[in-house]
Amino acid sequence: MPPSKPRSPAPLYEQIRQLIVAALAAGEWRPGDALPSEAALAQRFGASPGTVRRAMDELAAEHIVERRQGSGTFVPTHAAPRQQFRFLRLVADDEAEGFTRELLGCRRLRASAEVARALGLRTSEPVIEVRRLLHRRGRPVVLDELWLAERHFEGLTAEVMARHPGTLYALFETRFGVHMVRAEEKLRAVAATPEAAQLLQVSPGEPLLSVERLAFTYGDRPVELRRGLYYTSSDHYRNELN
Amino acid sequence: MPPSKPRSPAPLYEQIRQLIVAALAAGEWRPGDALPSEAALAQRFGASPGTVRRAMDELAAEHIVERRQGSGTFVPTHAAPRQQFRFLRLVADDEAEGFTRELLGCRRLRASAEVARALGLRTSEPVIEVRRLLHRRGRPVVLDELWLAERHFEGLTAEVMARHPGTLYALFETRFGVHMVRAEEKLRAVAATPEAAQLLQVSPGEPLLSVERLAFTYGDRPVELRRGLYYTSSDHYRNELN
DNA sequence: CAGTGGTCTAGACCACCAT
DNA sequence: TGGTGGTCTAGACCACTGC
User: Fold this and answer.
1) Are residues B67 and B85 in the same domain?
2) Which of A146, A215, B121, B171 would give a disulfide with A226, using CB separation of 3.0 to 4.6 Å?
């Protein structure tokens, strides 16, 4: 019995998609959890299975959920090996894998105008700044500096990061419930400052790839600003254009 | 004792997708043309409309076809304004738009080992090399060098390019029937060589963003190798991570 | 107005996974 | 074996476009 649909601004599958995102943002299902089956969700939202399926298609394409045939639909976690390099596009020319992390510092300060604007904070709101190096084959190749609103990452210290073996995004997810969903990056070539040169073991003025990233959690909320300096002598930033 | 599982053939919608790509590669529909309606295609392939629709969903997501509600489904063309910057991710910090093109040279030579490998040619097969500059606000910001197999671009000369007002990819499409579908890029920061420095009006050694692109036409056939040097002082390469 | 893609429903069967 | 997502079908109605 096809019910006559009332006029609505967004299609039903889009409304359902947004409801699921809202539920994820509210923590109804955490990373690693299975979502209810598509049939159960169809019941919950009063839609047909095909419509819920369409919503899940969109969410799977955005990597907001992950399907496993026969098992169910799950909330992806940055702890999974597959997610390891989802936001780090720097690959070795010879396809070597993996980095080792070296924490340089973690301190609390007031948001600069730039950080405040990017993260949607009031100026001089408390912010946590993290600096670190990534090494490949014993050589530093990435110098990362990143800023987080303290109110979302209360208790983040050098200690906490040192104890955590995985990626930062995996830590943010398990410890602070902040799951990164997508990011925007601006790339430039810049000359190494004396400080960056020393840390990356290159000469001052050496060309470095500057990667400025704004990362978003559910609902397009910006939660991290990051500035990376990549030494691209035997590594490159890989991109795919469609 | 488990019975040997026969290899499952690709799903019907995937087979249909490939048949449509093959028809596009064969030139059955040219850029700007409308494809047959989904109902007509369903008839042609002996599938239900929903299955054909699924195939078109995939093709639309890859930008291999473009849907216009109420009008039909079309082959996109690089001549359309929307496609103008599909493969050029360099944007001005102040969002200014547009470039002016300056052709530096176009000559015929034999494929280097690197070009041959990238384009799948025999070494020393004839290749066309194009060099040009892109200017923004009267200032050079991109130095492009690109290589094409001559057998796919016979008759491409400086004259032909000078007469054509649009982008290179629009020219390739209308004049040579080669439509670019996707590309892979490798980015690095490099120091300007004396020659590049002079052309881009910067000091030798200045950091430049090196963008090496391999562009593909239908069926993942590589047809263009390109090396761009971007001056990223008041422009940046924009990327989106999902 | 006719024709197109866009949405939504309903249900059958298959492939895969855990138990 | 039961439950899950994956495929495929069939058809209704809506929204938009162009004549």
Assistant:
1) no
2) A146
Tell me: pLDDT of A110 over 90: yes
A182 touching chain B per CB within 8 A: yes
Whether residues A86 and A126 share a domain: the answer is yes
Measured from the Cβ of residue B231, the count of other Cβ atoms closer than 10 Å reads 25
Q: Alpha-carbon torsion A69, A72, A76, A81, what sign?
A: negative
A66 & A122 share domain: no
Which residue is the nearest neighbor of D10, CA to C1'? B48
Last residue of a domain, which of A58, A74, A90?
A: A74
Q: Looking at the domain assignment, is residue A195 inside a domain?
A: yes
Q: Which two tokens stand for residue A222?
A: 């910006």
Chain A touched by B189 (CB under 8 Å): yes
3-state SS of B184-200 is EEEEEEEECCHHHHHHH
- For residue B184, being part of any structural domain is answered with yes
- Degrees (nearest 5) of the Cα angle B41, B15, B77? 60
Read off the CATH number of the domain in which B90 is found: 3.40.1410.10
User: Which residue of A86, A184, A209 is in closest CB contact with B188?
Assistant: A209
Q: Does the distance separating the beta carbons of A242 and B187 come in below 8 Å?
A: no
Nearest amino-acid residue to C6, taking CA and C1': B69
Q: Taking residues B99-126, what's their average pLDDT?
A: 96
How many Å does it take to go from CA A13 to C1' D19? 33
- pLDDT, one tens digit per residue, over B192-203 is 999 999 999 999
B89 contacts chain A (CB < 8 A): yes
> CA nearest A237 in B: which residue?
B187
Residue whose token pair is 């800023």: A147
